[in-house]
TrEMBL record:
InterPro entries: NAD(P)-bd_dom_sf, ODC_Mu_crystall, ODC_N. One of its GO terms (molecular function) is ornithine cyclodeaminase activity. The keyword Zinc does not apply. Pfam families: OCD_Mu_crystall. The lineage of its organism: Bacteria, Pseudomonadati, Pseudomonadota, Betaproteobacteria, Burkholderiales. Its EC number is 4.3.1.12. It is an enzyme of class 4 (lyase). Keywords: Lyase. It comes from Rhodoferax ferrireducens. The keyword Lyase applies. This is Ornithine cyclodeaminase.
């Protein structure tokens, strides 16, 4: 059959399809860990993310993430809008589309509503980072931020650690209270809502900073971090002090290639100042997952994990969603050509 007459079909998974998949915590973590393992073994290609700001007057931007996972035989491109005032019109701040492609001939394989996927895979990366860099007996979680990814951070971390205490804080009282109520319902345990950053963070075993700032501001103080803690900051606008990296025994990233991608990121100033560099970076998380570099070596270590968003985790979780959807008879078959 010649190219001109070849028929190509792709699968479309919309938001109701994705929700109907009802992915379990274990499924999400396993899919993303698979991508990290491939990355650690240098079986992937990651291009640094790109930004598109449509208008300076609009409160947001688009991120474009691109990657390829050789063992899965899939390339992928995700476009995610990050519009932090979307709550005013009843929409999530992050709306995304994932496109999966055949890397041998460029044909499209799937289009997936990746809004929930983005939140899930971000939570999985947070949880897997902690799994390898936090103390095994971590019992107190301090979480700053209540945006979409925050729910999966807490849920997937708790699936690993079963915390005795979970503290949450965000700027708007209505968002932090609603966030805590949802977590209490879904996790079946009490959530402590704090009115300030310090009471959320001080003395916590694991600290996650997922704030939504309009401009960089060092609201998370280094002195609040207890020895032996694991700190995971990933806000688009930095909320940490420049001194944060000075107290760390190990610093790990999801992908070093993205450290300088764009002007934003929680530790961008630390990279610019030379505090986080190829020399001071302990490893990429994939290298630890693949067993090529050690994770936490003792309870005394104070460790940091910075993730900027890994296209590979989108592709791996999207691939799993596609496979599960086919088993369950979900999704629409669309003709491409």
């Amino acid at each position: 059959m010649s190219d001109s007459t070849a028929e190509i079909y792709l699968t479309y998974l919309n938001h109701p399809d994705v929700q109907a998949l009802a992915l379990t915590d274990a499924e999400i973590l396993a899919a993303v860990e698979q991508a990290l393992h491939a990355q650690g073994n240098q079986q992937t290609t990651i291009e640094p993310r790109m930004h598109l700001v449509p208008e300076k007057d609009y409160p947001g931007h688009f991120n474009v993430l691109r990657g390829y996972i050789r063992p899965m035989g899939l390339a992928g491109v995700k476009v995610v809008g990050d519009f932090y005032r979307n709550y005013e019109i009843g929409l999530p701040s992050e709306l995304a589309v994932l496109n999966l492609f055949n890397p041998k001939n460029g044909s499209p394989i799937a289009i997936i509503d990746a809004s929930d996927l983005t939140d899930m895979r971000t939570g999985a990366i947070t949880a897997l980072g902690a799994k390898h860099l936090a103390r095994k007996n971590s019992k107190i979680l301090g979480h700053i931020g209540a945006r979409g990814t925050s729910y999966w951070n807490v849920r997937l971390l708790d699936s690993i650690y079963d915390f005795d205490e979970i503290r949450v804080h965000s700027r708007r009282p209505e968002s932090r209270n609603a966030f805590a109520a949802k977590l209490e319902k879904d996790l079946g345990k009490k959530i402590t809502v704090t009115t300030d950053w310090e009471s959320c963070v001080r003395g916590a075993d694991i600290v996650v900073e997922a704030s939504r700032l309009e401009k960089p501001e060092p609201l998370l103080k280094t002195e609040w971090i207890k020895k032996g803690a694991c700190v995971i900051p990933y806000g688009t606008m930095s909320a940490v002090e420049l001194s944060l990296t000075d107290i760390m025994d190990k610093m790990v990233m999801d992908d070093w290639g993205q450290a300088k991608a764009g002007p934003l990121g929680a530790l961008r100033a630390h990279v610019d100042a030379g505090k986080l560099s190829e020399q001071t970076l302990h490893a990429e998380l994939g290298q630890i997952v693949a067993g090529l570099k050690p994770g936490r070596a003792s309870d005394a270590e104070t460790n940091l994990f910075w993730h900027r968003g890994l296209s590979l985790s989108d592709i791996a979780l999207g691939a799993f969603m596609l496979e599960k959807a086919q088993r369950m008879g979900l999704g629409q078959r669309l003709r491409f050509r």
